[in-house]
């Protein structure tokens, strides 16, 4: 096999670090359709890090959607692959691979805390490469989170480009929604400046969070839902939450946050 594409990441990971994204995946109608319609439910966890724990957690959670999923954890560090091998279980394996996806054609790719360590100029090329390797109807999650997974953000992409941005957090651990700005994906974090759509979204979320302060007596999750309702009333295309998730989640179409002057890939 050709040398894996990419550079070795720091590898930082931890148990349940990616739980918020995993829960969102399990309940996303778009993701569920892709998994249930796939002839081969192959999922790739790209850059699983120094320990394979989050790969195994993803498999367990997606099993509720598609019991016969095959999940491959990829790393470009042979030492990490060798260390993970004993953790393999039926339906879950580990292999050497990078952005070339080891020649696989998955229906879902999760790449978390990977592109954050690359220059922003690399994002369009990586997105294009990953999109070109998807199975029909396949999807990609490009995301970032803090060390404990309390503040997260991710972009959902398909073969045509970015679809949506999701912000998710433990609302007990923030002062305002814009606290999540530090965890924006690489494609957006440098665009969080005045006059850019992502900056406008976070500023609007902060305003409605402040206006919903009275709901805080019922808990920060109720306040978050009031904030979402305020954004929707102002015309922000907030995706409705299909159920009362334990996580505070804000999802908008990519068009609502794409950098000003972006090309079809979503980047300038």
Name the descriptors:
268 residues, alpha/beta, Rossmann fold, 8-stranded mixed sheet, 8 helices, 29% helix, methyltransferase, Methylase, methyltransferase activity, SAM-dependent_MTases_sf
Would you kindly provide a written description of the structure presented here, covering whatever features stand out?
It is built from 8 helices and 8 strands; from the N terminus they run ααβαβαββαβββαααβ. It has 268 residues and is α/β, with parallel strands linked by helices. The protein has a domain of 151 residues: 3-Layer(aba) Sandwich (Rossmann fold), CATH 3.40.50. The protein is globular, with a radius of gyration of 18 Å. It starts with 18 loop residues before the first helix and ends in a 15-residue tail after the last strand. The model has no long low-confidence stretch (mean pLDDT 94). InterPro entries: SAM-dependent_MTases_sf. One of its GO terms (molecular function) is methyltransferase activity.
Q: Could you outline the blueprint of secondary structure elements for this entry?
A:
Layout: H1 19-27, H2 29-37, E1 42-46, H3 53-62, E2 70-75, H4 78-84, E3 92-96, E4 108-112, H5 123-131, E5 139-145, E6 151-158, E7 161-169, H6 186-189, H7 197-211, H8 220-233, E8 248-253
Parallel strand pairs: 1-2, 1-4, 2-3, 4-5
Antiparallel strand pairs: 5-6, 6-7, 7-8
Helix pairs in contact: 1-3, 7-8
Organism: Mycolicibacterium fallax
GO molecular function, one term: methyltransferase activity
Protein name: Methylase
How large is the radius of gyration? Answer: 18 Å
The strands making up the biggest β-sheet line up spatially as 3-2-1-4-5-6-7-8
Please tally the β strands and state the result.
Answer: 8
Report the structural category.
alpha/beta
Total helix count? 8
- Second rung of CATH, namely the architecture of the domain at 19-169: 3-Layer(aba) Sandwich
Residue share in helices?
25-40%
What characteristic shape results from the CA principal axes? globular
* Through-space gap between termini: 34 Å
- CATH homologous superfamily designation of the domain at 19-169: Vaccinia Virus protein VP39
Give me the strand/helix succession.
HHEHEHEEHEEEHHHE
The CATH class of the domain at 19-169 turns out to be Alpha Beta
Low-confidence stretches: none
The averaged pLDDT comes out at 94
Q: What can be said about the biggest beta sheet?
A: 8 strands, mixed
CATH third-tier fold name of the domain at 19-169: Rossmann fold
Strand content: 15-25%
